[in-house]
Amino acid sequence: MVTLAEVARHAGVSASTVSYALSGKRSISAATRERVENSVRKLGYHPNAGARALASSRSNIIALMVPLRTDMYVPVMMEIAMAVATAARTHGYDILLLTGEEGAEAVRRIEGSALADAMIVMDVELDDERLPLLRAANRPAVLIGLPSDTAGLNCVDLDFAAAGAVCAEHLADLGHREIAVIGEAAAVYERHTGFAERTLTGLRERSAELGLRLLHRPCEGSYASVAATLSRVFDERPGTTAFVVQNEAATDPLLALLRQSGRAVPEDVSVVAVCPEQVAAHASVPLTSVAVPAQEMGRRAVEQVIAKIEGRGSNEEVMLLAPELTVRESAAQAPAGT
Amino acid sequence: MVTLAEVARHAGVSASTVSYALSGKRSISAATRERVENSVRKLGYHPNAGARALASSRSNIIALMVPLRTDMYVPVMMEIAMAVATAARTHGYDILLLTGEEGAEAVRRIEGSALADAMIVMDVELDDERLPLLRAANRPAVLIGLPSDTAGLNCVDLDFAAAGAVCAEHLADLGHREIAVIGEAAAVYERHTGFAERTLTGLRERSAELGLRLLHRPCEGSYASVAATLSRVFDERPGTTAFVVQNEAATDPLLALLRQSGRAVPEDVSVVAVCPEQVAAHASVPLTSVAVPAQEMGRRAVEQVIAKIEGRGSNEEVMLLAPELTVRESAAQAPAGT
DNA sequence: ATGAAAGCGCTAACAT
DNA sequence: ATGTTAGCGCTTTCAT
């Protein structure tokens, strides 16, 4: 194993010079810097992570808490995680992968052992058990998601309320007046993850302003429950001409069932989804949709957390990303004779 | 920050005693151990990761290289990654998340900096650029996947050949004689990830033994290409009564298209899939399938790599997990008048 | 069964 | 602009 001392000897300088030449924390003459860099390359030197962490009390590692529950939003979670890892590397940081399983204990462990310089926490619930610890911790933390009380916390999330509003607007522009919302499973609302409620709020407020009638129904992901929900919707509101879906698992069944029941999408019924790009793009009818900007969320979270590590950057910043509606093929002008 | 020294003082013993009491590397009287453990709890002591790594040249971190390419097998990758993280924790290890993006450079970086004690590499290609480095590295590595040359390497993977064989057997048992294989996109075969080919080999060999006629067609995941593939299959082999699908994206289109063309599953046509449980279970017709045992793969990889770290465990071990076929509703007795 | 002390490889004052 | 040196908190000989 190549050490700093060996590099120093090889370059004919002192250890600190090598250290400073590499960190750039004090000015070094071009000549010495060159010599040092040469020796580093020639010897294949890599600073020892443990030693560096011990001496500087900086590990250059960011812990990422990912929900273990593997049943929902998996591709988006993965995309965020990958975006976080990629962004972190461009700033010289590595990612430590923690599963939600350890819960609050993980926060204590990371803080106590100084394993990571900061934490990024995904899948935050409205009243998450980790929040108090995170607030108390003397390590920076950024949440991906939006708890009910954001005091003393940094958060990055999609502005789901705005997403709901955008959907309502788009359908109103197309002349629709009666809209049904196929929501997440009831369990999601009960878990109080917040995002589903926020979409609904945005949808409701904008609908009220635009004079749309709105009917909301939570829904499981199975064919059977989508079928049941659908027939109830058409029973209660036969004039429904458009759907907003926020339920990854329900979109495909929804399209299939509409087709089966003789309703063409988008000629007879329009569908707008709030879901990952992939799901929207690969559906049997490519879906006009608002996507979760996973990449950007990951990148922003990293930037925010690094800013905090390095002493720049306010704490208690809530960054809500503006939704973007992508027009595909599932939403069109409302049919005439309604 | 609580240090070992503080714990020692609080417990009225020396630093080394605390260290040994915690590591169990030499015998400690029950009384002292008790006192130490009490102090640890009372003070909320967590060993400093950097210091420990420096002194012991063990980081208790395993690096996990996950493919960045987020377009395929995402849920399975995620499931494996989570299983790896969970299993690692039960053995006192943490996971460092590396994206495939860095490629071979990541291997050098980890080895040079001693950031991790070992590596687990996912999504290995037949002739992966990282293999030479991994073989040369003096850190243990375990691959999830099976390259063409496994010399000097530890691998964990599903036995895809056996999976193919199991599918052939199941369909033969049900009286099918003409079988079509809907495979992965041609690009997958060209990328030489190997698993698709291995399934096919197993399928072919067992089919030959059982007297089945087999037709293989690679296929993109879109509705259009599944439709095209399907009509070609029925053109060439009108007597086809069963399908084996190995293409996550194609399964739903396949079922939809069969239904549309008036062929009931499983009454008229049987379908057996090689795909993740979730996909199989949530398809419009629950699929009889062979799943990728993601959890087990993750766990085995961790166990194997830790065995190597700790000096037990042979290197050059290839562990092929036996496939298990789960009978659901998509495969039944072949129709009579064929 | 326990202590004392020498590093592990690096960073960051403190020199000059 | 560069060198000297004192730790960072732990593990692990070497003593006893």
UniProtKB/TrEMBL annotation, chains A, B:
Residues 2-56 form the HTH lacI-type domain. Pfam families: LacI (PF00356), Peripla_BP_3 (PF13377). Transmembrane segments: none annotated. One of its GO terms (molecular function) is DNA binding. Gene3D superfamilies: 3.40.50.2300, lambda repressor-like DNA-binding domains. SMART domains: HTH_LACI (SM00354). Keywords: DNA-binding, Transcription, Transcription regulation. This is LacI family DNA-binding transcriptional regulator. It comes from the Bacteria.
